Amino acid sequence: MRKALIVLAALASCLTPAVAICAQPADTLIWGGPVYTAEDTTPKVEAVAVTNGKISYAGTRAGAESLRGPKTQIIELKGAALFPGFTDSHVHLSGIGERELTLNLEGSGSAAEVVARLKAWMATLAPGEIVVGRGWIETGWPEKRFLSAADLDAVSPNNPVLMERADGHAIVANSLALKQAGLDANTKAPFGGAILKNDQGQLTGMLVDNAMSLATSLIPAKTEAFRIKALKTGMAVETAYGWTGVHFMSAPWADVEALEALAKAGQAPLRVYAAVDRDDADRLFASGPRSVADGRVVTRMLKLYADGALGSRGAALFAPYSDKPETSGLMLLTPEDTRPILAHAVKAGLQVGTHAIGDRGNATVLDLYAEALPKTGPSLRWRIEHAQHIRPIDIPRLAKLGVIASMQPSHAIGDLHFAPDRLGLERLKGAYAWNSLTQSGAIVAGGSDSPVERGAPLIEFYAAVARKDLKGLSGPGWHPEEAVSRRDALRLFTVNAAYARFEEKALGTISVGKRADLTAFSIDIMTVPEAEILKGHAVLTMVDGQVVYQAP
Predict the structure, then answer these.
(1) What pLDDT was estimated at residue 375?
(2) Using CA atoms, how far apart are residues 42 and 44, in angstroms rounded to an integer?
(3) Helix ranges restricted to H, 303-423
């Protein structure tokens, strides 16, 4: 009789709505900590079962116990919190790997520190070998200025040096690099670019946006071995952070093909959704949306650039910069050149994502999208990447057009130290307006823009809910009402990220039948005090039911 009651209890659990697969034991059971599903109807459960790479149960621990078999793997969370797999909706995957493989300038506290790091790196190089670095940002430096060629020349007289600013929209070149690139005071900047000069009309070494290519041509082409190493390194970094997937922006076509080959060989632990640049538009138009068999690598998005970045004053504004009235930024596209590309994308059924940071850049993109999108425009799910500074009158337009705002919360907590100077307090009303966009009905997908930012998911989550820098500081006119609730912050990186890549039926929530992409953090980010969020870390990353990262 007792055995019969146990069987009946197990069958009863199979009849609950949370369970879809009870015919066989689960491959994996996960319990021992809070489980947040990101579903509105059942936001929290006790346990999850995984079978054949999909979620087969989400409910009580007792119900999960009924799916335990002799070969079932048990993952004990030990108090850690489990979530749907976190997805970074805007990242430069190869750049993350290259950051680890080249001169990393992140965290440099001054121009002097950059020079010191360069000097140490140079000790490993032969004369004439080019030096490539990335990650410096002058915000907070005692020098209160950009890097210059003069800074670099003292320690690099015999090697060309190119140092990319953290935002990826400006580089500084030393004098030798400028000479080898054929640049001097008479060189004219290309459309959408700027060559900065000092008061005497001499080059400072700073090249902004489209002018960067005048010097980056010095960088040798990537070898296939380096490309693969950078991609593998980037994927390892991301899974260790707790990301189960990324939207890979500006993916070179060679990277797409390399990732597809890695996925087919079982060497892609990360779910990758790729967006290729305008230079590869013809290839994407010819192939159409493409995917490897298991959907691990998908390419169906075209990435365009409307303007530059705020920090280097390349973001296109309607009014001049408050701290430099002689400029209002740079537009990197023209409507005449862009309209045919958008029309082709509509015809091909492709998603388009356009980088836009300034209010003029965002308004221009919305105007172009409104012209190009058919009445069924929301089905194409076009995106604005960054959407950082939008006039309040333009905010409702995104929801009306069905345009996704792909935003990176950490930009706000870094930019708060210089954005008020660049924009003035009045224009901050539409800056980093995650909550206003969410409340307007627009889909906001969350990302990091790594390696522009560090790329840790808990920094992004903290920034979204706290709207303060990493020390807990805010600033005048920073509009704390634009912070979002923790529920909405979770959706940025789960539900909305899945929607932004057309995978809401397979990803984004812990729901029976969906792919078992799961992330566990050491702390419960839904309940701990804001400052405590930054102290957490990933303890488990699972993609398609396979553990791709587990903390010691």
Answers:
(1) 66
(2) 6
(3) 335-348, 359-372, 395-401, 409-415, 419-423
Encode 109-148: b = buried (16+ Cβ within 10 Å), e = exposed: eebeebbebbeebbeeeeeeeebbbbbbbbeebeeeebbb
**In sequence order, what E strands does 202-360 have?**
203-209, 243-248, 271-277, 290-291, 297-305, 351-356
pTM (predicted TM-score): 0.90
Phi then psi for 205, rounded to 5 degrees?
105, -10
| SS (HEC) of 84-149 | ECEEEEEECHHHHHHHHHCEECCCCCCHHHHHHHHHHHHCCCCCCCCEEEEEECCCCCCCCCCCCH
Tell me how many helices (H) and strands (E) the chain has.
20, 23
Strand-pairing partners, residue 173, are 162
Structural domain span for residue 440: 88-92+224-508
- The reply to whether 485 and 514 lie within a common domain is no
Q: How far apart are CA 98 and CA 92, in angstroms?
A: 10
Last residue of a domain, one of 197, 216, 235: 216
Q: What is the mean pLDDT of the chain?
A: 93
Same domain, 321 and 372: yes
What's 7-23 look like in SS3? HHHHHHHHCCCCCCCCC
Beta bridge partner(s), residue 405: 384, 444
Instruction: Say how many residues make up the chain.
Output: 552
Give the amino acid at 426: E
Cβ count near 537 (within 10 Å): 16
**Cβ distance 416 to 469 under 8 Å?**
yes
CA angle at 267 for the pair 263 and 268, rounded to the nearest 5°: 60
> In this structure, are strands 203-209 and 193-197 parallel, antiparallel, or unpaired?
antiparallel
Structure tokens at 321: 């910069």
Mean per-residue pLDDT for 18-41?
A: 84
Say yes or no to pLDDT of 173 above 50. yes
